[in-house]
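Bench notes, afternoon.
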Amino acid sequence: MVSEQISLILGPSFVLSFQEAEPDVFAALRERLASGKARALTMGADYLAYALLDTVVDKYFVALEKLGEEVELMEDDVAENPTPELLQRIHRLKRETIYLRKATWPLREVVGALERRETPLIGRAIEPYVRDLYDHTIQVIDTIEALRDIGSGMLDIYLSSISNRLNVVMKLLAVIGTVFMPLTFIAGVYGMNFEHMPELRSPWGYPVVLSAMAAIAVWMLCVFRRKGWL
């Protein structure tokens, strides 16, 4: 997201605008003014200031639309494919919404002051336009707050998904360890190789012990499945 600071100075019969860099935020408005079709040519400087502020607010809607599209993509991945890259995207979304919130709150105060006509530079003729601009500013702030809440919710879902995956892995490892505990015990007993151990010299001792170990493993897996642990 690219950001810049825009300053406006409103006088009785003039409006000064200052921008930091290209592209020109007011390019479309400039074209309408150059073509002679802009209402600001006949409404006065206060309407032109409103038009400039309205253009700025419209740019916020464009930025929020892009963030909304990114949120939709992340919502599909957060439960199905929670990766570290997705976590970085969620944190970036939260940072961007916080930045937008800090940028729009002062704008709301400015537009609110214009709506209350705290300056004689605002005429009654543009009161409906300024009121509509204030409503759009509130809508922008509400959308930012909603995206911020969605980002927090996605972070919680991401952490829950990671925890669930970890629980599944730990459950599988616990089952494997439990199955191999008796097998390891049997292998350890018959691995001591004492001279007078039973079945030590029996020609069927080795396959019998392996068969017993396999039967124990299969029996334990069946018990685990019956209890719903697998």
